[in-house]
Amino acid sequence: MRYRLEHYPLIIEQDVTWGDMDAHGHVNNVVYFRYMENARVEFYRRIGKYEFEERTGNTLVVKSTSCRYIASLSCPDRISIGARVTDMNDEQILMQYIIVNAGTNQVAAIGEAAIVALKYGDRVPFPAELKARIRELKSERT
Fold first, then answer.
1. What percent of the chain has pLDDT over 90?
2. Whether the predicted model's global pTM rises above the 0.90 cut
3. Cis omega (within 30 of 0) on the bond before 125?
4. How far apart are CA 79 and CA 142, in angstroms?
């Protein structure tokens, strides 16, 4: 598969919990979005998004998101979740995610989110300062 965990500058790990599963004994599809959110929040933390938001009043919000399911997960799997930004422009960034079963190294899902910037509820250009920090994070991994 062309998606490989090592191509993602941010990787977090977590356990699949019993509560993540549905009646069919595998992780419910909506939970994958929570996994991606966990990686996005850590990505934001590493680029200083929260301090930037407090200082400037600019915030980032998800405009759209999607997930393609590849293989099922269940408790007690351990997963690795990768996040990377694949496109940046003045309007938005495109963040991609990969969810991998850490025990089998099988890709379980691929997702993405378009993220825009707001200030006091109005769209604004994506902040150059955050784009520079995203580039720095990317270069730390390569």
1. 92
2. yes
3. no
4. 22
Contact yes or no for 9/39 (Cβ under 8 A): no
62-75 burial, b for 16+ CB within 10 Å, e for fewer?
eeebebeeeebbee
Strand partners, 94: 87, 114
From residue 11, alpha-carbon distances to 35, 39, 116, 124, 135 in Å are 12, 7, 22, 29, 16
> 34-93: per-residue pLDDT in tens?
999 999 999 999 999 999 999 999 999 999 999 999 999 999 999 999 999 999 999 999
Quick one: 120 exposed, middle or buried, by C-beta within 10 A (0-12, 13-18, 19+)? exposed
